């Protein structure tokens, strides 16, 4: 018998603000895949990620995690998921280090420093988020991908504000993650330059 997919989205309907999005959406995601969710502005890409993350409920349909229906209780999937939303979850009043320690209280100083070094943020360790550029804030948000070990990455517009070097660093890290058996589901309006993805198109 074939083993169940990592994630199965089955006849999923999403409603937001009395508008129905994703009318009967079906797709599977396998271990080792990068899935790019495409669609026009307002098509429902962020909403779909939020439904998978268990942040908002679906109107109808089911989500299966390794064949187990988790539609009503996302806790098993949430344990294995790192969701970085469009607004990135970075706190303006904290420094770069405080932000990361807030999200990842168990991180060692070595790991923190090596991650910030990869992302070019080490000199900004004690700088308050409110003094950073948009691209630097995005790098702080994404640094959790190097620290928190989770199978599923749900990334909403992770490339926004990144320069070419930042895009290359993130694409390379995604590639390593899926080669190691992870899964990435992301939304982006830009083409991926060095990684292969499977595209799911949400028609608006
Ligand atoms: N909190 C909310 N309350 C009500 N409606 C919402 C809410 N958030 C989003 N919507 C609506 O849901 C629809 C889909 O929004 P969503 O953010 O999922 O789209 P998107 O495809 O990610 O768009 P974009 O490409 O612009 O980021 C839009 O019509 C939007 O107005």
From TrEMBL:
<dbReference type="InterPro" id="IPR003439">
    <property type="entry name" value="ABC_transporter-like_ATP-bd"/>
</dbReference>
<keyword id="KW-0472">Membrane</keyword>
<dbReference type="InterPro" id="IPR005895">
    <property type="entry name" value="ABC_transptr_haem_export_CcmA"/>
</dbReference>
<dbReference type="InterPro" id="IPR027417">
    <property type="entry name" value="P-loop_NTPase"/>
</dbReference>
<dbReference type="Pfam" id="PF00005">
    <property type="entry name" value="ABC_tran"/>
</dbReference>
<keyword id="KW-0547">Nucleotide-binding</keyword>
<keyword id="KW-1278">Translocase</keyword>
<keyword id="KW-0067">ATP-binding</keyword>
<dbReference type="InterPro" id="IPR003593">
    <property type="entry name" value="AAA+_ATPase"/>
</dbReference>
<keyword id="KW-0201">Cytochrome c-type biogenesis</keyword>
<feature type="domain" description="ABC transporter">
    <location>
        <begin position="7"/>
        <end position="203"/>
    </location>
</feature>
<protein>
    <submittedName>
        <fullName>Cytochrome c biogenesis heme-transporting ATPase CcmA</fullName>
    </submittedName>
</protein>
<keyword id="KW-0813">Transport</keyword>
């Amino acid at each position: 018998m074939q083993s169940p997919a990592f994630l199965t989205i089955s006849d999923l309907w999403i409603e937001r603000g009395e508008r129905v999005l994703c009318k009967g959406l079906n797709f599977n995601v396998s271990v080792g895949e990068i899935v790019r969710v495409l669609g026009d502005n307002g098509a429902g890409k962020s909403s779909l990620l939020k439904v998978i993350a268990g942040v908002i409920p679906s109107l109808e349909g089911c989500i299966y995690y390794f064949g187990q229906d988790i539609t009503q209780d996302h806790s098993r999937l949430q344990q294995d998921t790192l969701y970085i939303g469009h607004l990135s979850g970075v706190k303006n009043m904290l420094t770069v280090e405080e932000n990361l320690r807030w999200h990842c209280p168990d991180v060692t100083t070595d790991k923190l420093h090596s991650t910030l070094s990869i992302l070019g943020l080490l000199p900004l360790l004690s700088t308050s988020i409110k003094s950073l550029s948009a691209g630097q804030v995005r790098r702080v948000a994404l640094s959790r991908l190097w620290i928190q070990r989770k199978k599923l990455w749900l990334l909403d517009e992770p490339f926004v504000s990144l320069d070419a070097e930042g895009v290359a660093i993130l694409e390379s890290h995604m590639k390593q993650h899926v080669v190691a058996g992870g899964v990435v589901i992301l939304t982006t309006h830009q083409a991926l330059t060095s990684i292969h993805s499977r595209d799911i198109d949400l028609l608006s």
